[in-house]
Design goal:
Layout lengths: L15 E4 L6 E3 L12 E3 L2 H12 L1 H5 L8 E3 H25 L8 E5 L5 E3 L6 H10 L1 H32 L1 H7 L6 E9 L5 E8 L1
Antiparallel strand pairs: 1-2, 1-3, 2-4, 5-6, 5-7, 7-8
Helix pairs in contact: 3-5, 5-6
Length: 206
């Protein structure tokens, strides 16, 4: 089963596994299929590429934190550091927006576009100015993509783990229940506001 994971900015595909453990669901950051006694869901496309890059460059180099277990991307850790980075990012963006006379009183919904750019998806009065700011400042765009990827990978990983659990009990029922995983991908939207930042998801056809 192919479960699409994160990262329009990555254009290669590797294969990895999500497996259950007492410490929580984890990704193997090796970029290779690993055989375990657990039921497993193949993760292909861009999300597995993130795992592969983490295996080669180190999780620190991809996501900016040191995992408790070397070489392992733990979903709980992804969410914890994703939240930490998002709060810091929101504070930094608030300052940048104010310096550029962008209204921070109204929430700003940001998404990855198919061409790799970052776009505003709600009706914000400074939509054009915000999108231009991201085009001109690669650093803030890269940080956005990193944080979005962390949350999306964690969400997909939890869903894949739930599929594994269901599949181990009743394969046919699990495939029917999670059939949308075959032909859709999870897309994250980060909402920036002067109160707090949050991320929410929707699914699009693959």
């Amino acid at each position: 089963m192919n479960v699409n994971l994160v990262g329009k900015s990555y254009n290669a595909a590797l294969t990895g596994t999500v497996k259950r453990s007492k410490a929580g669901s984890i990704f193997s950051a090796s970029g290779k299929m690993q055989t375990t006694d657990d039921d497993k869901v193949n993760i292909s496309s861009q999300g597995a590429m993130v795992s592969g890059l983490a295996g080669k460059l180190g999780i620190e180099g991809i996501f900016g934190y040191t995992p408790k277990t070397p070489g392992v991307i733990n979903i709980d850790e992804l969410e914890y550091y994703g939240r930490k980075f998002l709060d810091e990012y929101n504070a930094d963006l608030q300052n940048i927006f104010r310096e550029n006379n962008i209204d921070t009183g109204k929430p700003i919904n940001l998404e990855n576009a198919s061409d790799g750019s970052i776009v505003v998806t709600n009706n914000h009065p400074d939509k054009a100015k915000i999108e231009e700011l991201f085009k001109e400042n690669q650093e803030i765009g890269n940080e956005y993509k990193k944080i979005n990827n962390m949350f999306t990978m964690a969400a997909e990983g939890r869903e894949a783990s739930e599929f594994q659990e269901a599949y181990s009990r009743n394969p046919d029922a699990a495939v029917a229940q999670y059939s949308y995983l075959f032909n859709t991908r999870l897309e994250g939207t980060i909402r920036i506001s002067d109160k707090a930042a949050e991320i929410f998801f929707h699914r699009e056809r693959s």
